[in-house]
Amino acid sequence: MSYIPIVDPKTMEKVLFVLGFQRVRQKGGHVCFYKHPNGRYTAFHIKNLPKIL
Which residue has the higher pLDDT, 22 or 47? Predict the structure, then answer.
């Protein structure tokens, strides 16, 4: 099984901006919606989740 790294929200947001996404809206403090100029959308939680070991 492959290893998938855990990325913190600030780093993920920076990556989305580098890829050309722009913040469209934020509802509450949990989810941001981003839109790419070619019409793609993505959303993710911006609140840090507790680490479960």
Answer: 22
Q: pLDDT > 70: what percent of the chain?
A: 77
Position 23 confidence tier, pLDDT thresholds 50, 70, 90? confident
Residues 6 or more apart in contact with residue 33 via CB below 8 angstroms? 23, 24, 25, 26, 41, 42, 43
Give me the phi and psi of 14, to 5 degrees please.
-60, -40
Residues 6+ apart with CB under 8 A from 19: 36
Of 33, 52, 44, nearest in space to 11 by CA? 44
